[in-house]
Design a protein that fits this description.
The complex is a heterodimer of chains A (about 120) and B (about 180). With about 120 residues, chain A is mostly helical. The N and C termini of chain A lie far apart (about 95 Å). The mean pLDDT of chain A is about 85. The N and C termini of chain B lie far apart (about 90 Å). The radius of gyration of chain B is 28 Å and the shape is flat. The chains are: A mainly alpha (about 120), B mainly alpha (about 180). At the A-B interface, α3 and α4 of A face α2, α3, α4, α5 and α6 of B.
Chain lengths: ~120, ~180
């Protein structure tokens, strides 16, 4: 009697909405998705990726200042060692370290009280 | 009696010194106290300060990204590779390895320090300095200290870059200049 498919379909119609398996599936899926997003955001903030993300709001004006040329030349880790090789290394080293040869960055005077006009009158 | 006198003199001197130190501390704290005029100035120039901070914060990002990338490349594509090549050719590269190791440690420090500075600046530009001028002022001081820390690490890294170059030149003069003379001869 109860094995009749017609009866089973009728029973399904009388199940309360909060006991539907489909609803449970959707809710669990949303919970898992939220958990994964939270883990991803935690990693994004904790491992320093946030600081490298120039697509954040407020950074669109400075996006073109990021060097995306990828022109840094690698020195070969294989091969003989002689004076000529070391000279080649030094030449390459000098060329590539000129990109960072200024230490006059992140000066604290840029955010001094005077610069921000919040010094004591 | 003489011992008692000495004890009394020593006690008086100790008490006098303690009193002197304690009297100086409130004066020092007093200089940190903000005047009403100062607070009013912060409130008045709040917009200017926030705009300046926002601009600096945005401009710092590409500078950091470019530096971080170049420092990593110097370490990974130059220092590590030369050290490996020297070791494979059975040369003693201890000095160079030490500098490269120090450079990597400084790079980690650079990233961590910048992250701390960046987070402080992010908090700062979101603050309402008209409502909380004193907290804002303290936070600016905190951000300034963290920015200075990043600056000092950059200076240290520059010294390590220069030091590595000097060490390579020394390695060459100690180990290879004779080879060149022989090949020239």
């Amino acid at each position: 009697m109860g094995d009749n498919p017609e009866n089973a379909n009728t029973d399904m119609l009388h199940v309360p909405w909060y006991r539907h398996k489909l609803l449970h599936l959707v809710m669990v899926s949303i919970a898992v998705a939220l958990l994964l997003v939270m883990i991803a955001m935690g990693l994004y903030v904790s491992n320093g990726t946030e600081q490298l993300d120039i697509s954040r709001p407020g950074y669109s004006a400075v996006q073109d200042q990021v060097d995306q040329s990828g022109t840094f030349v690698s020195f070969s880790a294989d091969g003989p060692v002689n004076s000529i090789v070391i000279d080649q290394f030094l030449k390459l080293y000098d060329e590539q370290t000129t990109r960072v040869d200024s230490s006059e960055i992140f000066l604290s005077t840029a955010i001094s009280d005077e610069a921000l006009e919040i010094d004591a009158p | 009696m003489a011992i008692v006198k000495k004890f009394l003199i020593a006690s008086i001197i100790t008490l006098s010194m303690t009193a002197a130190v304690l009297s100086v501390i409130p004066v020092t704290a007093q200089t940190q106290t903000m005047t009403e005029a100062h607070i009013a100035r912060i409130k008045t120039n709040c917009g200017v300060a926030l705009a300046t901070l926002g601009r600096i914060h945005a401009n710092d990002a590409p500078v950091y990204i470019n530096r971080n990338q170049t420092y990593y490349s110097i370490s990974d594509k130059m220092m590590a590779r030369l050290n490996s090549r020297l070791t494979l050719n059975r040369y003693d590269a201890t000095d160079l390895v030490k500098i490269a190791s120090d450079f990597n440690a400084a790079l980690d420090d650079f990233r961590l320090s910048y992250k701390a500075y960046d987070n402080t600046m992010a908090d700062l530009v979101r603050m309402d300095c008209t409502r909380a001028p004193v907290s804002f002022y303290d936070k600016v001081g905190d951000a300034r200290d963290k920015r200075e820390r990043v600056h000092l690490i950059v200076a240290d890294m520059q010294k390590l870059i220069d030091g590595y170059r000097d060490a390579v030149k020394k390695f060459k003069s100690d180990n290879l200049d004779d080879d060149k003379d022989e090949s020239d001869g």
